[in-house]
Specification:
Layout (H helix, E strand, L loop, with lengths): L1 H24 L5 H23 L7 H27 L4 H23 L5 H17 L1 H10 L5 H24 L5 H23 L8 H28 L2 H6 L4 H13 L5 H18 L9
Helix pairs in contact: 1-9, 1-11, 2-8, 2-9, 3-7, 3-8, 4-5, 4-7, 5-12
C-alpha cells in the first residue's frame, strides 16, 4: 500500500514539528495549560470525524478502559512530563537523549510483553541508532556536563518517567488494541490524556494563554498536524508492524528537529549532527528491514 510506504516518513516529519511548536508556544502559554487545550480540541475534532464516518465504538468496558488507559500513558504522562521538564529548563539536547532511549527500552521489553523476536541485524540497528543520537547531540551533552544541571535533577527524573510512560503506552496499545476503529480509539485516548493534564495544570500553573496569533497558530498545528495527523499515523504504524519498528522512528527526531531549527531559527548544523544523522538513518533502516519470522505470536 502507498500509505505503508509513506507513513514512516510522514510520521517523522509531523512528530518532529512538535519540538518547533513547543518553542513557539512556550512564550505564549503555560505548557500544561497548552496541552489541556490541545487534547480537548483534538478530542472534539476526532469525535466529529467519528460521527461523520459513523465509527464503531468499543463494545466492552474492557476495550473502553484499554483505550483510555493507553491515552493516559501515550499522551497524558508522556507529553506532560516532557513539556514540564523543558519548561523547567532541561536542555533540549539532554531531553533528546532521553527520548532516544525509548526505542531501546521498547525493543528490550517487547519480547516479554508481546513475544516479538528481533533479528541480529535489527539489534545492531537499534544500537547504531542510539550511538548516532549520542554523536549528533554530543556538543549539547558536553555543555551540560561542563555547566552542570543546576538543580534540574527533578525535572530530568520527570523526563525519564515520561519516556517510560510512552514506552508502556506503545506496548499496551499493541497488546490490547489490535482490533477496533482507530478513530474512536484516538478519541478515547485524548480523554485519557485530559484525565492527566487537567489536574496537573490546575495544581502547577496559572492557566496562562495569551491568545496572540502565534499562540493560535501553534494550537492549530498541534491539534491537526500533531494530535490528529502524527498520532493517527503512530497508531496506524503500531497496528501494521512491530512495535520496535515504530519506536525506532523516534531515533530520527533529534536530527530532523535540528534541520528544521536551522531553517526556521538559524541554529547551526554541526559536524557531529551531520555524522550522527547518517548513522541514525542507517540504524533505522536496519531495524525496519523486512524479513522472515520477525514476530512470534
Amino acid at each position: 500500500m502507498m500509505l505503508d510506504r509513506l507513513a514512516p516518513a510522514l510520521f517523522v516529519f509531523l512528530w518532529s514539528t512538535g519540538w518547533i511548536v513547543a518553542k513557539y508556544a512556550a512564550k505564549h502559554a503555560d505548557p500544561l495549560t497548552f496541552l489541556v487545550a490541545r487534547h480537548a480540541l483534538a478530542a472534539c475534532a476526532v469525535l466529529t470525524v467519528c460521527l461523520i464516518v459513523r465509527a464503531k465504538w468499543p463494545k466492552s468496558r474492557a476495550q473502553l478502559g484499554h483505550a483510555i488507559l493507553s491515552g493516559i500513558f501515550l499522551h497524558g504522562f508522556y507529553l506532560a512530563g516532557v513539556w514540564y521538564a523543558i519548561g523547567q529548563g532541561v536542555p533540549a539536547g539532554l531531553s533528546g537523549i532521553i527520548a532516544g532511549l525509548q526505542p531501546l527500552l521498547t525493543a528490550m521489553v517487547a519480547p516479554l510483553f508481546l513475544g516479538e523476536r528481533l533479528k541480529p541485524l535489527q539489534k545492531v540497528g537499534l544500537a547504531l541508532g542510539f550511538a548516532g543520537i549520542l554523536i549528533a547531540i554530543s556538543p549539547q551533552l558536553l555543555d551540560v556536563f561542563e555547566r552542570g544541571l543546576g538543580g534540574l535533577g527533578f525535572p530530568v527524573i520527570i523526563n525519564l518517567i515520561a519516556m517510560s510512560s510512552v514506552t508502556y503506552g506503545t506496548l499496551h496499545q499493541k497488546r490490547h488494541l489490535q482490533e477496533g476503529d482507530l478513530l474512536s480509539i484516538a478519541t478515547l485516548q485524548f480523554v485519557g490524556a485530559l484525565i492527566v493534564t487537567i489536574p496537573l495544570a490546575l495544581m502547577l500553573e496559572n492557566l496562562r494563554f495569551d491568545w496572540t496569533h502565534e499562540a493560535v497558530l501553534a494550537m492549530g498545528w498541534s491539534v491537526f498536524g500533531l494530535s490528529m495527523g502524527a498520532v493517527g499515523l503512530l497508531l496506524y504504524l503500531i497496528r501494521r508492524g512491530q512495535v520496535s519498528r515504530a519506536a525506532s522512528l523516534i531515533y530520527l527526531m533529534p536530527p530532523v528537529v535540528a534541520i528544521e531549527a536551522a531553517i526556521l531559527f538559524g541554529e547551526p548544523l554541526t559536524w557531529p549532527m551531520i555524522i550522527g544523522t547518517v548513522i541514525v538513518v542507517a540504524g533505522v533502516y536496519m531495524v525496519n528491514r523486512k524479513g522472515k519470522a520477525e514476530t512470534a505470536g
